[in-house]
Every structure is written in structure tokens, then in C-alpha cells.
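In the current project phase, we have settled on a layout for protein records. One protein thus recorded is set out beneath this paragraph:
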Amino acid sequence: MSWLDKLESFWSSFFERPFRRGEAGIQPVEIAKHLARTMHANRTISISRVYVPNIFLVYLSLRDWERLSSFLRALAAEMEDFLRERATEQGYTLVGDPKVEFEIDDNLKPGEISIHCRLEEKAPAEEISGNTLTYVPLDKK
């Protein structure tokens, strides 16, 4: 992360933190902003491409998780679409489809989130089919 990214992150959290701690908790648009920043901060520059993470684990406070739990699958799908579009806009390369999952972190206060990310390459089709188990029924005699 460059010093400019660190400075932007500091000022952003400095000004946003007081507003996040209200009764409303974290909003999906804030999660999207944090995901985009995390993707950008963890980019890897290659010879001709800029690779970015495609797997994101978003940690929420228990209260925020409970509030959002009724539509977390839809929210994850929306965030995955957002990350795919953002990567395309920025000219980034994804090594696999974006995947967003949500977990609870008891150490977080309402309105706070933590994001862990990684690059995970999509397995070739022949590898996937090679690991498929086929069950054949046994003849009963």
C-alpha cells in the first residue's frame, strides 16, 4: 500500500468512523466501498496485467450480521457483481469469479468491518471433472 493510499485510508476512517457508530450500523454501500478499497490496496502488478483478489471474507459485528442476515446471499451476489464491474472499469485482472462471504467477529463494534482477501485461481474444467465421484448402486442378491 503506497503512502498516498495509507493517507487516504487514514482520513477516510477518521471522518467516517463517528458516523458509522450510530444505531443504523453498517450499510451495504459502505461495505462496497471497503471492498473496492481492499481490492485496490491488494493489487499485484505483473508485466502486462494488474491482478486483484477475487475471494473476500467480510467480518461484521454480531449486531450488523443479525441485521443483514435475512438477505446476506443477495448482498453477497450484489457485492460480487460490483467487484467484477469495478475490476473491469479499472483494467484489473481477476483470476477467478469474485466470491464474497460474511462472518461474525465478536471483537467488532456495530458499524465496523474487517475484510480479508486473497487471489484464488479458478481450477481448469478437467481438474474439476477429475475430482467428481460417481456412485454406482450395488446389485442386491
Remarks:
- The mean pLDDT is 84.
- DSSP finds five helices and six strands in the chain.
- Residues 4 and 51 are 20 Å apart (CA to CA).
- The beta strands are 44-45, 50-52, 55-60, 93-94, 99-104, 113-118.
